[in-house]
Known about the structure:
Strand content: 15-25%
Shape: globular
Largest sheet: 11 strands, mixed
Radius of gyration: 19 Å
Order of helices and strands: HHHEHEHEEHEHHHHHHEEEEEE
CATH architecture of the largest domain: 3-Layer(aba) Sandwich
Oligomer: single chain
Number of domains: 2
Helix content: 25-40%
Structural class: alpha/beta
CATH topology of the largest domain: Rossmann fold
Number of helices: 12
CATH class of the largest domain: Alpha Beta
Strand order of the largest sheet: 6-7-5-4-1-2-3-11-10-9-8
Amino acid sequence: MNNPEKEVNMAAPDQAQPLLDQTRSHYDEYPFIEGGSNRIDWWRDYLVEFLPDGLVRGSRMVDVGSSVGEISRGLIDRGAQMTCVDISLGSLRRCREINPEAEIFHASALELPFEDASFDHAISIGVLHHTPDCRRGFHEVARVTAAGGTVVIFLYNYWSLYNLVFQAFKPLRAIWPLEKVPKWMVRTMQPFARTHLGQTLDDGQLRRLLGDKLWTPQATFHSVAEIKRWGAEEGLEFLKLKRFYLGYANVMSFRKRGDAPAGGTGETRLRCVGCGGSALESGSEVHRCTACGREYPLEGGIVRVHA
């Protein structure tokens, strides 16, 4: 295992593109599981400790790595105006069905298509550690959060048995594609699903769960000290830590230093990921950058930042 305290240098997004494409293809084929009302209710209640009703109600929030949008659904039910972002188009199509009220963006967590300080609060639950550059993803989440806003991050714990198990499975992942994993091995995920999620999953959902936990193209593990350091570097004040299910992950919240903007953050402000310009012309079918001419079509209620 690598030293969790070493300095992390953010790589240029284009250097990460092959792994990003692999991850997108993986989660298009094996999106994260759906727990339905049970999972929506569980996460709605769990996040109250980090995001009380007084912060959520009426606020503009972004869910970076929303997958099918069940966590966002719980926040919408509590009064948030949600923007959902994910690299998997298949997951976002399901997110659109679950969250018809939300703004949906097909985009990378490493290049969020929003201006600085665009949202009152931000969450990223179990996603940044699957990106090619977790540190850059953390930076992006902090960047788009307004002063005074809360950032809630869920990242795999470096000091966990899960880290050892994930590394031990590396040889199997190299020779055994997920679709070839026998059912008996897939079904070993059922006790985890029952105790952690409180429900029994069918074989298809269990394979998707295995695909996320042990067959994902990328997973990195991070110490609390490392994440706190990242927060300090991004102007975030650490608020709260909670160990997640047998300590395999840490859920941490931060406050962006400074005073919150009067009246909130207003409408979503877009910026071009091609040239970094913020002057986008918005239409009913396409957003267009006035600086470089890059277009972002709106297809099926989803803004396609990544074609």
